Amino acid sequence: MAEQSFAGRAAIAGIGQTEFSKRSGRSELRLACEATMSALADAGLEPGDVDGFATFTMDNNPEIELARAIGAGPLRFFSRVHYGGGAACATVMQAALAVAAGVADVVVCYRAMNERSEQRFGIGAIPLAPVATTETAHFGWYAPFGLLTPASWVAMQAQRYLHDSGATTEAFGHVSVACRRHAATNPNAWFYERPITLADHQASRWIVRPLRLLDCCQESDGAVAVIVTSTERARDLRQPPVLVRAAAQGASRDQQMMTSYYRDDIGSLPEMAFVARQLYEQCGVKPHEFQTAVIYDHFTPFVLAQLEAFGFCRPGEAPEFVRDGRIELGGALPINTHGGQLGEAYIHGMNGIAEGVRQVRGTAVNPIRGVEHVLVTAGTGVPTSALVLGRG
Amino acid sequence: MDPHHALALPHPRPGITPDNRFFWDGLRQRELRIQRCAACHRLQHPPAPMCSGCHGFEMESIVASGRGTIHSFVIAEHPAIPPFSYPNLIVLVDLEEGTRLVSRLVDVAPEVVAIGMAVVVDYERIDDELTLHCFRSLETAGG
Ligand SMILES: [Zn+2]
Fold first, then answer.
1. Which residues on chain A place their C-beta less than 8 Å from a C-beta of chain B?
2. Measured between CB atoms, which of A137, A147, A262 is closest to B14?
3. Nearest residue on chain A to B87, alpha-carbon basis
4. CB contact under 8 A, B72 and A146
5. If DSSP codes are grouped into helix, strand and coil, which group holds residue A152?
6. Are A139 and B75 a contacting pair at CB < 8 A?
7. How far is A72 from chain B (nearest CA, A)?
8. Which of A133, A192, B19, B110 shows a CA-CA span of 20 to 30 A to A326?
9. Is this prediction's ipTM beyond 0.85?
10. For A8-149, where are the alpha helices, taking DSSP H only?
11. Are residues B56 and B72 located together in one domain of the fold?
């Protein structure tokens, strides 16, 4: 572990969230305010204590509007991370860096969206006549041919993964079944008390083959906020501190936004493997030392690729690894114990960070015994990020 | 054998920049072009302003043979987004020159498409400004 590392010097002191729904009936800014106030109350802090914010470039709520609404003091740190859900854990990394460097004292990381009722990501709304920019030039290699939705972008890599591993789509189904089982006992989950079977998965309709409806996460309205401060300060606050033991971002060779189709092997996620190497270097934790993990699940195939990237199993072996309840409660590595984005809600990965915190605190609705370290990952198929959370 | 569909509805367009204009201009002339570095002759797709191999800024292009094999594919079914017809077979093609690109596969049934299938390029004229490439099975195209 490098002496100058920020790892372990910042902690999550508070978490807050709204209800998760399909129609919040409130503004996205109000959702951000509610989640932030809830997280501050959880930590035992006041809005006046906040001097920093970190969020996604995709979030529609500017830091200054949130600060103004809650009555936060002067801000000395505000930072946004690009690349959709890949930003989730990186917001906490930004906050931890700022806190460890003494640039900020109390940073709110937030994501608030009416993704279901207002701005849906999955409907393929690409501008018909885009202004020429580097990003519209990028989507120009895909949109004119009908490759328009996140499901379709992921399906291209998933098809090749099946071909190379020899697996069938039942491997995707095991991920879906695990998440829905965990959501079924989480009252905050949209799919509370609605578990599914592998047969349900296999019978669900095609979205973009080889992806079925039950391979795709939900669309949700809601917000999550987490409070990051120094480990020392966190020890004096209301909750036991949850240490940011490691945090890393990653973009790999020939990285593209959702379409990294030009590498030799398109079924794997080298950017996540790169994140994994950094995390393991920062905190010295090894794969078998995680008692549970929150694996970003916008689409089931990339959960398999992440299990391989983090070394929970060897490349191509995830289809075998996820069988027989190994990723469910009572298994060797229960994942997404809140139900994930397939089962609880799609808040762009931020609800997964909140679950990681609850597992370390011992307050999760589906608690894992003796949690020392939790892995939390962010969006896949994009430049991404991940965290190791641990006991203080 | 006109592959052009009844595309009366607006069609999604690429963002055309000085770095990729040669590609879209080529399609209007029924040429599938691949960017090549003038200095080291390295091919790259999608194109970029410079060669990531030798760092030269002088870029040119070659015309691809149009033959390739399917590296991966998807069959889009939902949501149905105009003006596309569904199911829409979208393929990732390994061109024989060594680069890879995304296109549509036409006149092939969903049950038949497979990784490794040999394909050959064709063109779909959308309107005066936009022509797209598409691919056909080499076997049925008689190539
Ligand atoms: Zn060159």
1. 122-124, 126-149, 152, 155-157, 159-160, 163, 205-210, 259, 261-262, 266
2. A137
3. A208
4. no
5. helix
6. no
7. 41
8. A192
9. yes
10. 28-43, 63-70, 88-100, 134-139
11. no
Tokens of A44: 């035992």
Mean pLDDT by 10 residues, chain A (392 residues): 76 98 98 98 98 98 98 96 98 98 98 95 75 91 96 98 98 98 98 98 98 98 98 98 98 96 97 98 97 98 98 97 97 98 98 98 98 98 98 91
Could you tell me if B75 and B131 lie in one domain?
Answer: yes
Domain membership of residue B112 (yes or no) is yes
Residue range(s) defining the domain that contains residue B57: 17-63
Q: Which residue in the block uniquely carries the two structure tokens 């309709």?
A: A205
Between CA A351 and CA A340 the distance in angstroms is 8
Homologous superfamily in CATH for domain A10-118+216-391: Thiolase/Chalcone synthase (3.40.47.10)
Residue of A nearest to B46 (CA): A141
B75 with B138, same domain: the answer is yes
Q: Are B87 and B76 in contact (CB under 8 A)?
A: yes
Average pLDDT, chain A: 96
**pLDDT of B7-29, one tens digit each?**
456 899 999 999 999 999 999 99
pLDDT tops 80 at residue B87 = yes
Tokens of A76: 């000395």
